[in-house]
Every structure is written in C-alpha cells, then in structure tokens.
Amino acid sequence: MVNLIVITGPTASGKSDLALQISKEFPIEIISADSRQVFEYLDIGTAKPNQDEQKIVPHHFLDKVKPDEYYSAGLFGEQAYSLVSKIINRNRIPVVVGGSGLYIKALVEGLFDEETSDELFNIKEQLQKLIHQPDSKQELLNELQEVDPISFEKYSDQNNRRIIRAVAYYRVNKIPISQAQIEAQQKRNINPIYFSINHDREILYKRINNRTNQMWENGFQSEVEKILQMGYSPKLNSLDSVGYKECINYLNGDISKEVAISEMQKFTRRFAKRQLTWIRNQTPNIEWIEPNNLD
After folding, report:
1. What's the Cα-to-Cα distance from 23 to each of 57, 135, 151, rounded to whole Å?
2. pLDDT of 205
3. What is the value of pTM for the model shown?
C-alpha cells in the first residue's frame, strides 16, 4: 500500500505555495491535479507555477497537451498512477497538488469503467421512459434499495441518471454497481493522506478577488489575445472556463473590462464554493490546516 500525500482545496487557497515550502524540507515531486494547468499556453489564467517555481521542484502534468487536444480525468488517473511508482523508485516523495476533485479521484480510486453493451443500452432507454411516469420512480427506488442498498443511500439526491445507471447495471450484471466500484478501487493500492488549508470564507473570497486583479495586472489579457491569435477557437473546452470566457467576452466587445474582471471574480468564488462542497462530500479524513499553522 502506497501512502500518497494530497494537497487539495479551493482555488486561491495556497496549495502551490504550501507544496513549494514542503519541497524545501523534503525531496518531493509535484503531481499537478488541475484540469486547466494541463493545457499549454494557459498560464496566468490558471495560476500555473512559473518557470522559476518549476525549477525549485519537479512538476508533472503542466503543459501536457495543446488547448485543442483532448484530455480527461480518466487519462490523468492512469498516467499519474503510473508516475507515482516511478517517483518512489527515484527515492523521492510524490505529492499531489490541485483542486480538480475528479482528477484526484481518478488517480486515487480509479474511474469505474462501466462496460457498455446493447442490453445495457436498451435497459437504460426503457428506464429513461419509465422513470417519468407516475409512481414509476418510486418503484425504481424501491428496487434499488433492495438490490443495492449502498447505492440507494449514496444517491440520496434521487438523481434520475444515477438511479437508472445503478438499476440497469444490476439487471444486466446481477451484482450491485457499488460492489463493482469498490472492487475497481481496491486495485489501486493507494492510501491517500489529504490536506487542505482552512481559510475563512470571507478571507478566501478576498484572496480570489486580489488574485484576479493580479492576473490582469500581470498580462492575462495579452495571454488570451495571444492564444486566439495562434488560431485557437474561443469555443474550445479548454477556454470555456472561468476567466478565459470573461476575457474573451471583453475582447469581443460584449462587456467592459471592469465587468469582465468583476464577473471573473464572481464566478471564481462560485467555483471555489463548489470545490469546497466536493471536498467535504468526497474526501474522507481530510486534515484541515489553519493558515497560521502552516509552518
């Protein structure tokens, strides 16, 4: 079993700075778990570690692909999992740093790969039609509670897609999807040790606002202009993210610069709130570090 240090948390909470401080005390290599820093040229807007910081300690999964190339949590999970053992074999300590919860989950647990078949597809289609009929959703919930009580408890939000997926999986495979997921996770052989910096919400939001202003002062607009001048479409998934969307709207003349900055701050705060919700719901036994105890 490999013990793996994971520094996670919302954007602007100081994850990268903490990792750099740790690198001064221990021989670490950083595995960046950030779904936007993986793209080349997206530097200022993703708060990517600069070249000087990357010289202090080896960083992995920065500038992995071009903005128009496909990348996913599944790819990251497999590639990062392979990298962990290589770092350990170099007698160094892998430290995962990032706020992309699905990326971290893919590395630590593996993403459950649900095999597709015509039978599974057909059953899902039938259930999709059935679940909108009166009383039918409750019947499916009752079935799920009987065949897969773990998923029933887990899906307390009663999300239709999740219910259909779990019931269909059991009907085809005759085992609960929760059991299949656990078996997939056990193959990872990783024991994650989670840490996050516990800023008060008001302080975190102030850090986000200040960092947004610094990004624009440091040339964020020029970065976006350069990316577009290189021929990359503003509709790319890599650019359809907080900050880049607002800057592109400004460059297109749709909003003023002041509004672009204000909206970037607002949507980044909302993104941080979603990250915190994910961490609290998906990250077990996390160690919350008070900012004044970082040393």
Report:
1. 6, 58, 40
2. 98
3. 0.82
